[in-house]
Design goal:
Layout: E1 16-21, E2 24-29, E3 34-40, E4 43-44, E5 62-63, E6 69-71, E7 74-77, E8 80-83, E9 93-95, E10 105-110, E11 113-120, E12 130-139, E13 142-151, E14 157-159, E15 162-163, E16 166-167, E17 178-180, E18 183-189, E19 196-201, E20 214-215, E21 222-228, E22 235-240, E23 246-251, E24 257-261, E25 276-281, H1 287-290, E26 295-297, E27 302-311
Antiparallel strand pairs: 1-2, 2-3, 3-4, 5-15, 6-9, 7-8, 10-11, 11-12, 12-13, 13-27, 14-26, 16-25, 17-20, 17-22, 18-19, 18-21, 21-24, 22-23, 23-27, 24-25
Length: 312
C-alpha cells in the first residue's frame, strides 16, 4: 500500500487562493500570506512568480513582527537582551520578520476576500506569542491588504509590519518609469550593510527627492523614507510609464515609513530592476533598537495596518 503525504501535491509557494473582482485578479500563496500575482484587465501590477517557485527576494511576502532589518539581529526589550537568527547572512542582520516562510491557515475564503492566520510561537530571539491575521480584499478601488497582530502572550511584545510587493508600471524596467514619492526625509544607511545612519532631508540628497514626479533612470534606491505628505491622511506612491499606464500604492497614518528599492540584481539580469519595491512600514528599519514607530503590544492588545494597490 502506498501513501502520499497531503503536502506532496501542494505547490512550493503553498496553497493558491484566487480573488477576482472589478477587473482585478489576485493570487495569494499561503506560505507567507504572499501576494504572488496581481493583474488588472490582464496587466501585471506587481512582479509575479510561479506557484512552483520558491518565492524570490521576499516578493509579495507579509513582513511581521518586523519589516526591514534588525541590525546584527540584536535588541533589548523588557529589560532583556535578545539575539535573533541572522537571516540576511551577507550583511549580518535579521531580515523581514518571522512569518515570511510560515504556512498560513484559512479563516475566511470568499470570491473577492480571504483572511489567513498564523501564530508566531515563542522562540529564541522573540519569546512572545503573537497571532498574525492577513486579509486581502478586492474592490473597485483595487486590492487592500490588512495585517492585524494580536498578542496572545502574558508579556508585552514588540511589533511592526509591512508588505513587500514589487510594483510594475507597464512594459520596460524601473529605469524607464516615473516615480512620485511624497517624502521629505530619507534614512541614510551604510553602503556595505545598509545599517541605518540618520534621517536627513531629501534636499541634502537630491537623487532621492521624488516629491515631484520624475524619471527614475539609473538611480539606485534601497532606503526608507518618512516625512510623508498626505491627502486626508493618505500617502500614495505612483509609478508610471511614458505612455501613462501605471500603478499606485496608498496607505494611512498607521505607516509613517516606506521602503523603496529598485531591485538591483546585476548578477541576475532576469530580475535586475524589473520592478520597484514599495513597502509601507509601521516602523523604521531597526526599530527594535531605535524605537522609531515601534508598536508595543500589551497582552490581549490588537494592532492593525492597511495598504492598497490600484491600477492607473
Amino acid at each position: 500500500m502506498s501513501y502520499e503525504h497531503p503536502a506532496a501535491s501542494t505547490p512550493r509557494s503553498g496553497r493558491q487562493l484566487t480573488l477576482e473582482s472589478h477587473g482585478y485578479r489576485a493570487v495569494i500563496a499561503s506560505i507567507g500570506a504572499t501576494l504572488r500575482a496581481l493583474t488588472h484587465d490582464g496587466r501585471d501590477l506587481v512582479v509575479p512568480f510561479d506557484a512552483e517557485e520558491v518565492r524570490p527576494n521576499y516578493r509579495g511576502a507579509t513582513l511581521a513582527p518586523w519589516p526591514n532589518r534588525i541590525v546584527d539581529g540584536r535588541y533589548s526589550f523588557g529589560g532583556a537582551e535578545h539575539q535573533l537568527a541572522l537571516t540576511e547572512p551577507s550583511r549580518g542582520h535579521a531580515l523581514h520578520g518571522l512569518v515570511a516562510w510560515a504556512e498560513f491557515a484559512d479563516r475566511v475564503v470568499e470570491p473577492d476576500r480571504v483572511v489567513l492566520t498564523t501564530i508566531i510561537e515563542p522562540q529564541a530571539g522573540y519569546p512572545f506569542r503573537v497571532e498574525v491575521e492577513v486579509e486581502y480584499r478586492l474592490e473597485a478601488v483595487g486590492l487592500t491588504q490588512t495585517v492585524t497582530a494580536r498578542n496572545l502572550g502574558m508579556d508585552a511584545a514588540p511589533c511592526g509590519t509591512g508588505p513587500h510587493p514589487y510594483l510594475v508600471a507597464g512594459p520596460g524596467c524601473v529605469d524607464e518609469w516615473t516615480l512620485l514619492l511624497p517624502a521629505s526625509d530619507v534614512l541614510t544607511v551604510t553602503p556595505d550593510r545598509l545599517s541605518p545612519v540618520a534621517v536627513e532631508p531629501v534636499e541634502a540628497h537630491p537623487q532621492w527627492d521624488f516629491r515631484a514626479p520624475r524619471l527614475i533612470g539609473d538611480t539606485f534606491i534601497d532606503h526608507a523614507f518618512t516625512g510623508l505628505a498626505r491627502t486626508d491622511g493618505v500617502a500614495e506612491v505612483r509609478v508610471l510609464t511614458a505612455a501613462g499606464t501605471g500603478v499606485a500604492l496608498s496607505w494611512d497614518e498607521d505607516c509613517p515609513w516606506v521602503q523603496i528599492h529598485t531591485a538591483d540584481t546585476p548578477a541576475d539580469p532576469s530580475t535586475h530592476r524589473i520592478g520597484l519595491a514599495v513597502e509601507p512600514m509601521t516602523c523604521a528599519p531597526d526599530a527594535f533598537n531605535s524605537g522609531a514607530g515601534l508598536v508595543v503590544l500589551q497582552p490581549d492588545a490588537v494592532h492593525a495596518a492597511s495598504w492598497s494597490i490600484r491600477a492607473l
